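Researcher: Sequence of Large ribosomal subunit protein uL3 follows. Predict its structure.
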Amino acid sequence: MMAKTLGIMGRKLGMTRVFSDDGTAVPVTVVAAGPCPILQKKEAATEKYAALQIGFEEIDEKKVTKAQKGHMAKADRGLYRHLKEFRVDSTDGYELGQDLTVEMFQPGDKVKVSGTSKGKGFQGPMKRWNFRGLPASHGAEKVHRSPGGIGQCAWPAKVFKGKKMAGQMGNKNVTCINVEVLDVRPEDNLIILKGQVPGPKNGLVMVRKQ
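Model: Prediction complete. Tokens:
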């Protein structure tokens, strides 16, 4: 079941390092998040569940459809490129058009960060699954990076689904949990997170309370 935690959207600016009080270098990721206005409130009485829909990155009017324009006009906060819905236990205390900012997080908080991992294209089994490869000894010709046998016996006479083979690598939604918030800078809409988060520079990420 999906966890009912509220969050905001942002862009991964990249990685750097900060120094702790004892001089230890700590790798961090800087995320420019929000402000994200609330564009829609869903009540349990009418929608069977409670949720808040937020927007991120304002967009020109000519780049949205009439239906999208009418939907976002109800909040009277402009038009946005990305919309995201967060299920919550209750929408009490939230108003249509209200901004969600990085101030919802505090240093020391643990958060979940979701993003799309870097796409690696079509890769072989050694890179994709960390296979050892075949022996590179006498008599082995051009088979060093092959996956080896994949078939079964006369029964079931097929290759099972999910077998580790060559294929598309990366470009999937990835969530990192227990990511620590080291610093929050509301004046710049920045969150400083300890360690790495999914995705490339300028990739869209979602930061949620845990």
